């Protein structure tokens, strides 16, 4: 397991730092990110790279694989993480140009955060929809640490319960998004029977989501034992391919998302799934998916937060589909 991480000043005219993690090095120019390892160099548009990097940081490497594109990404082993180039791409592996290196999760997270801070310039918010942010391109010019240091909202029981994750309000700096101005903001009234006061709770989930200032970033709004409800608002393109290591359930609340489904190991295209309001789909544990939302939509991601599932994943015994007939 490699723990070597360092950064140096890039002497080119752009003013950005060069970062090194083990055998990998990372550079950027005005338009592209360059990922170098012993078997080759890979280029990505810098805006796509930063949007993907932001999700990997915010999600703590997430469940399974966060693929920045078909060639580069990370795979979470919960405590340690693989950084790979070409390992999940048929042509790279066939040519024996794929490369993978394992790091302690906290070590790689530190270098990712430093890179995110140095490479994100003033006006660009890698969490926002394209119409709500500036450009990622150009020479070094300030930073957006205020935006990229957002904390992912995670409820212990349910949003709005005293001491738990707060509701989003105008007063808290969460105006209704331009795409959801027609969403009713009325909160439900709970009338509990005597002696049950404080044991019942409800909140307006659509109203809560209508005030999201980020896209493609699920927040945990309720926790019932090992069941996590993680809704999110989506616009334009999910900046990553998510390679599952467990089954996920999707419930489309509003509008429409088109999902490109690929084989999890080879990136080979498998299907396109279009979900409209009211549709429900299970994403298997051996695929990758990337969504496209023509207008801002609401999606519920239902996750299995079981601690036992981590050991099942390591043992290769976790089911790949929700039910076998």
From TrEMBL:
A UniProt-annotated Pfam family: PnpCD_PnpD_N
Superkingdom of the organism of origin: Bacteria
Domain Hydroquinone 1,2-dioxygenase large subunit N-terminal: 11-152
Protein's UniProt name: Hydroquinone 1,2-dioxygenase large subunit N-terminal domain-containing protein
Organism: Vibrio cincinnatiensis DSM 19608
Lineage of origin: Bacteria, Pseudomonadati, Pseudomonadota, Gammaproteobacteria, Vibrionales
């Amino acid at each position: 397991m490699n723990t070597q991480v360092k950064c140096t000043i890039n002497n080119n005219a752009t003013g950005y730092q060069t970062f090194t993690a083990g055998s990998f090095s990372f550079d950027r120019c005005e338009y592209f990110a360059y990922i170098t390892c012993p078997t080759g160099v890979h280029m990505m548009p810098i805006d796509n790279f930063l949007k993907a990097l932001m999700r990997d940081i915010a999600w703590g490497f997430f469940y399974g694989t966060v693929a920045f594109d078909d060639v580069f990404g990370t795979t979470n082993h919960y405590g340690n993480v693989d950084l790979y180039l070409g390992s999940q791409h048929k042509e790279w592996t066939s040519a024996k140009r794929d490369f993978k290196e394992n790091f302690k999760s906290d070590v790689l997270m530190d270098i990712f955060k430093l890179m995110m801070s140095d490479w994100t310039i003033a006006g660009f918010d890698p969490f926002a929809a394209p119409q709500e942010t500036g450009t990622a391109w150009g020479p070094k010019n300030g930073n957006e640490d205020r935006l990229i240091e957002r904390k992912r909202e995670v409820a212990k029981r349910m949003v709005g319960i005293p001491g738990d994750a707060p509701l989003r309000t105008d007063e808290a700096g969460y105006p209704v998004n331009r795409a959801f101005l027609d969403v009713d903001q009325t909160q439900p009234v709970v009338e509990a029977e005597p002696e049950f006061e404080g044991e019942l709770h409800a909140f307006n989930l659509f109203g809560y989501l209508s005030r999201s200032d980020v896209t493609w970033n699920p927040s945990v709004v309720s926790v019932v034992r090992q069941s996590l409800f993680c809704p999110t608002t989506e616009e334009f393109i999910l900046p990553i391919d998510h390679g599952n290591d467990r089954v996920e359930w999707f419930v489309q609340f509003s509008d429409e998302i088109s999902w490109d489904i690929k084989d999890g190991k080879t990136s080979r295209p498998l299907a396109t799934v279009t979900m409209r309001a009211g549709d429900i789909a299970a994403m298997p544990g051996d695929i990758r998916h990337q969504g496209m939302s023509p207008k801002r939509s609401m999606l519920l991601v239902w996750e299995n937060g079981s601690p036992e599932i981590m050991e099942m994943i390591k043992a290769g015994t976790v089911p790949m589909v929700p039910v076998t007939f």
